């Protein structure tokens, strides 16, 4: 056999034993160096997984917060384990592959602006911070924020009923006119908003309430009440009775707003109605001033919206006055009369439906030749100016002086107007006590001339001032009313002028009969253009017949000062 040397054998093996030992030691050192890196990578991966879970929990809470009613977003509710069926709270355990990891949830609610009274902020900034209990480390909380706006976030009024039916004039079916009293208003809340009212709370101050407000067309509040007790133990049903027995005739707006127990205000439902009570209030302020073979009469103007005329009653003994004549203005000079005879007077109001008020208080006067026979000075400085965007002309003049001997003093002024300034003068007021006068009956796009005379307490009348004019009022403004349909379904809409009862098309064409409803698709809007300024009722329904009606959720049909919108 061939003999090989040990050196040759070692050469064929490739490396020596020492070299092998060195290689093993180097490999062991390298492995030992890689183990911490591997462990660190595993730890970092575990922390990333925990943070991803924390982020998912935070995102879930944010989405659930946005599903709550605005007034339910409170610190107590979010930290409670019973809110929204247990979907909130401050602790969360996550289990996977038999390993449970504990997460802690913190909520921060900041109203904006921060100094706003409770329920009056613009929105809430809600922060959700989720962290886990180590290990793994490092613990880096997942933080998310959301903004929740309060607009219309309060309780929603879904329907309103005004009655009873007997208070409405059955002769005017197209213009629901209230002719009786009291007016009972029933408001109904959305079922999902009932709990936000906390109506069963024994402390009334801690409950939500429905605010009922009645305003005249001029914006004066005539009645208001907050109702926190449900009607007849019916959840979500609130009732208010308006005693309108003393209300002057005219147009009134009913506004109903729901406010939750946490003082979050919801949207406002608005309805408008003409009020024309069967018996107008009796005139007040009747004064009779005697003169030479005459008696000058004046009284306070009637404020009813459906005024037609006055009836003047006269008699020669107390209590036996009879209907004497009809008058359009609240003043009259009764002449010629016999000096020394005493006459008794009373006045009543008649509305457009022929309803008579009670008679005013009785007054008397005895004509006689006055010791003062000198008339006052002619009023000077008469000026007439139109008021922009109204059908009104404003008059002013300098006060007159009574030169009688002895002087009886200036009683007032006689204001007249004419369409030409050359004749056809019509008295607007007699014995008017002031030196300014608003002719609110001038009308839109109308031209007038005016002159004024003074009258003293002896019934001496000055000459009339030189006429001023022509003064022309502005044309009646035309505005747009936009109806927004925020429902998830189409609706039909009708627009009616409260004062005239006329119905309008979307292009502004008026008609006396109710037209077909205008269809507005879901989440769309429709404008009614070229509407004369004034107050409008807007009716909406899911049916072409108009029943059942939908109650306005916001806005108003008031076009007295400019464009407006109403939302359903």
Can you lay out the helices and strands and say which pair or pack?
Blueprint: H1 6-13, H2 17-67, H3 75-79, E1 91-96, E2 99-112, E3 123-132, E4 142-149, E5 157-163, E6 183-189, E7 209-216, E8 221-227, E9 237-242, E10 250-259, E11 265-275, E12 287-291, E13 294-298, E14 307-315, E15 322-327, E16 331-334, E17 343-351, E18 363-365, E19 383-386, E20 393-396, E21 410-418, E22 426-432, E23 436-439, E24 447-456, E25 468-472, E26 478-484, E27 491-497, E28 503-504, E29 510-511, E30 518-520, E31 525-532, E32 536-541, E33 549-550, E34 554-555, E35 564-567
Parallel strand pairs: 26-35
Antiparallel strand pairs: 1-2, 2-3, 3-4, 5-6, 6-9, 7-8, 7-10, 10-11, 12-13, 13-16, 14-15, 14-17, 17-18, 19-20, 20-23, 21-22, 21-24, 24-25, 26-31, 27-30, 27-32, 28-29, 32-33, 34-35
Summed up:
The chain is mostly beta strands and 568 residues long.
Architecture overview:
There is one protein chain. The chain is mainly β and 568 residues long. It folds into 5 domains: 19-149, no CATH class; 157-275, Immunoglobulin-like (Sandwich); 287-365, Immunoglobulin-like; 383-472, Immunoglobulins (Immunoglobulin-like); 478-567, Immunoglobulin-like. The chain is 11% helix and 39% strand. The strands form 10 sheets. It has a 4-stranded antiparallel beta sheet. A 4-stranded antiparallel beta sheet has the order 8-7-10-11, with no helix packed on it. A 4-stranded antiparallel beta sheet has the order 15-14-17-18, with no helix packed on it. Strand 34 and strand 35 (564-567) form a beta hairpin. It starts with 5 loop residues before the first helix and ends with a strand.
């Amino acid at each position: 056999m061939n003999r090989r040397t040990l050196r040759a054998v070692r050469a064929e093996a490739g490396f020596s034993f020492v070299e092998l030992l060195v290689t093993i030691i180097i490999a062991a050192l390298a492995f030992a160096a890689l183990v911490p890196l591997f462990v660190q990578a595993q730890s970092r991966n575990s922390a990333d997984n925990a943070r991803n879970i924390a982020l998912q929990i935070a995102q879930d809470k944010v989405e659930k917060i946005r599903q709550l009613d605005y007034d339910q977003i409170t610190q107590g509710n979010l930290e409670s384990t019973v809110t929204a069926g247990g979907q909130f709270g401050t602790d969360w355990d996550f289990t996977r592959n038999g390993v449970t990891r504990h997460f802690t949830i913190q909520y921060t609610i900041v109203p904006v602006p921060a100094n706003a009274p409770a329920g009056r902020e613009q929105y809430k900034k809600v922060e959700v911070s989720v962290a886990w209990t180590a290990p793994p480390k490092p613990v880096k909380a997942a933080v998310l924020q959301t903004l929740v706006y309060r607009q219309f976030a309060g309780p929603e009024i879904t329907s309103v009923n005004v009655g009873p039916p007997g208070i409405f004039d059955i002769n005017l079916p197209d213009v629901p006119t209230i002719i009786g009293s009291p007016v009972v208003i029933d408001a109904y809340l959305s079922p999902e908003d009932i709990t936000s009212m906390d109506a069963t709370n024994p402390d009334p101050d801690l409950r939500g309430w429905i605010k009922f407000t009645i305003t005249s067309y001029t914006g004066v509040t005539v009645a208001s009440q907050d109702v926190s007790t449900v009607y007849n133990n019916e959840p979500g049903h609130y009732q208010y009775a308006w005693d309108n027995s003393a209300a002057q005739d005219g147009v009134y707006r009913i506004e109903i707003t729901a406010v939750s127990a946490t003082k979050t205000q919801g949207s406002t439902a608005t309805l408008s109605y003409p009020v024309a009570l069967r018996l107008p209030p009796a005139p007040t302020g009747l004064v009779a001033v005697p003169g030479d073979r005459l008696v000058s009469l004046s009284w306070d103007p009637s404020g009813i919206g459906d005024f037609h005329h006055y009836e003047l009653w006269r008699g020669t003994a107390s209590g036996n006055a009879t209907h004497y004549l009809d008058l359009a203005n609240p003043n009259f000079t009764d002449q010629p009369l016999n000096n020394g005879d005493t006459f008794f007077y009373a006045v009543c109001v008649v509305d457009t439906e022929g309803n008579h008020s009670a008679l005013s208080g009785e007054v008397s006067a005895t004509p006689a030749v006055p010791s003062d026979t000198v008339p006052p000075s002619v009023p000077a400085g008469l000026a007439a100016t139109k008021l922009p965007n109204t059908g009104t002309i404003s008059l002013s003049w300098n006060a007159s002086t009574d030169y009688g001997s002895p002087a009886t003093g200036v009683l007032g002024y006689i204001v007249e107007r004419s369409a030409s300034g050359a004749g056809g003068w019509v008295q607007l007021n007699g014995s008017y006590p002031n030196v300014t006068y608003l002719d609110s009956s001038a009308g839109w796009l109308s031209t007038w001339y005016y002159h004024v005379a003074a009258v003293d307490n002896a019934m001496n009348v000055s000459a009339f001032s030189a006429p001023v004019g022509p003064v022309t009022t502005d044309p009646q403004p035309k505005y747009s009313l936009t109806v927004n349909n925020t429902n998830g379904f189409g609706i039909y809409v009708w627009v009616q002028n409260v004062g005239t009862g006329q119905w309008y098309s979307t292009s502004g064409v008026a008609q006396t009969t109710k037209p077909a409803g205008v269809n507005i698709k879901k989440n769309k809007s429709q404008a009614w253009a070229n509407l004369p300024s004034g107050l409008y009722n807007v009716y909406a329904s899911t049916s072409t017949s108009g029943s059942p009606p939908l109650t306005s959720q916001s806005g108003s049909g008031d076009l007295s000062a400019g464009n407006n919108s109403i939302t359903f």
